[in-house]
Amino acid sequence: MTTADTKSTGAELALREFVKLASQPPAPGAGIPEDASPLLKNLWFSWNRQRIGFQWLLQQRCKKLRPRTEFLLEWAMTECYLLTGLPQHACVDLAVEYAKSHGGKEEAGFVNAVLRKLLREAPDATALSALLKDAPIAVQCQLPQALYERWKKSHGAQWTRELAELLQAPATVTARKRGSLTALPAPLNFEDAQKFLQESPAEFNPQEFYLQDASTLLAPALLNPMPGETIADLCAAPGGKSVAIAERLQNQGRLIATDSAEGRLPRLRENLAGCAIAEIGVQDAAHPTLPKESLDGVLLDVPCSNTGVIRRRPDVRRNFSIQHLQKLMEIQQEILEGTAPLVKHGGRLVYSTCSIEDDENITQVKAFLQKHPEFTLEDAQQLYPTSTHDGAFAARLRRN
After folding, report:
1. pLDDT by residue (tens digit) across 275-284?
2. Identified catalytic residue from 80, 275, 304, 354
3. CB 231 within 8 A of CB 254
4. pTM of the model
5. Which end of the chain is more exposed for a tag (fewer CB within 10 A), N or C?
């Protein structure tokens, strides 16, 4: 079998997997399945980064599209303009053959005509970007209209465009040597903690290093776990923050690391392997089974809109909606209410998200404090995405 044949076979398989996944996408927040092939993952992430623009371009050229046909055309656009595995003519041929086998000759002819016309108008990615200059600003930014309007209202049009440009690039992959947080003095300082991060090599030993973005160290730093304490991370999977907490506890005390879904626990257990004090299990953070006033500290890295991690989770662009945001905020409130009684007097609760939406962050904290005067806000920090880290929010609340 020739190299070209091998590429075509791999691309054909990825095409079938892609259309199937796009037709039945993961639930918001779930992400692509971990067992997906590297080629499918690359396709999925690349498509999600540019899909809003692809949709607009197709809408200008096609009156109406079946979902399957739309996904097929967008697969071809992703391959032709964003990836380098196949020549453009091979991408078109594969798309046409797929359309023929699934929809007949008429659909195949339509797909062929649309793609060849588009490639004449825009033979490369630069020319394709030029076509988007006539699109609405939100489309040029590759942002859902609702999210663009939120950011524009809160931060202005220029800030929004600059952030949108930053979010088009994949995030840098960084790693931290396991155990590196142990020697830092108390209280744990976020700026000191992130100094241990380094760009991850192509191959690394997961027993020696842990893949981690700097923003994920903000919440553990505000929590500042101390040896001998009882600490709970109640939305723990996949375990990055739990690993940081475990290092600070130095195998003295108790670490309760739980998540609401059994399917997320294997990764959590893997990341906490070797931590003798870790108690790992399933628990609904909104309705925890732990005794009241039993925790020195609790970390709540709650489900959120993920708008601070769009570089790593480009599917946020496709999933964001005001309705979904409201549902997430209700879940966040339930988790705060359910967990607050577990904190000892004098203990602390750290509320954390990877969102940059005030509604999920400081506004949520203020609403909780109005209902719970027994807690005091000691610190709150909002990180916005930069070229070196993702966006995140964390607030430390002390129980009086």
Report:
1. 999 999 999 9
2. 354
3. yes
4. 0.93
5. N
In terms of CATH architecture, what is 174-399? 3-Layer(aba) Sandwich (3.40)
Sheet with strand 392-399: strands edge to edge: 278-282, 254-259, 230-233, 295-301, 343-353, 392-399, 375-383
Q: Is 354 a catalytic residue?
A: yes
Rounded to an integer, what distance in angstroms lies between the CA atom of residue 77 and that of residue 82? 8
**Any idea which fold 3-135 has?**
N-utilizing Substance Protein B Homolog; Chain A (1.10.940)
Q: Are 379 and 396 in contact (CB under 8 A)?
A: yes
Nearest to 302 by CA among 328, 337, 276, 271: 328
Report yes or no: 123 and 143 within 8 Å, Cβ to Cβ.
no
- Name the phi and psi angles at 365, rounded to 5: -65, -45
Nearest-angstrom CA–CA distance, 301 and 81: 37
**Is residue 204 scored above 80 in pLDDT?**
no
Q: For the chain, how far is it from start to end, CA to CA, in angstroms?
A: 71
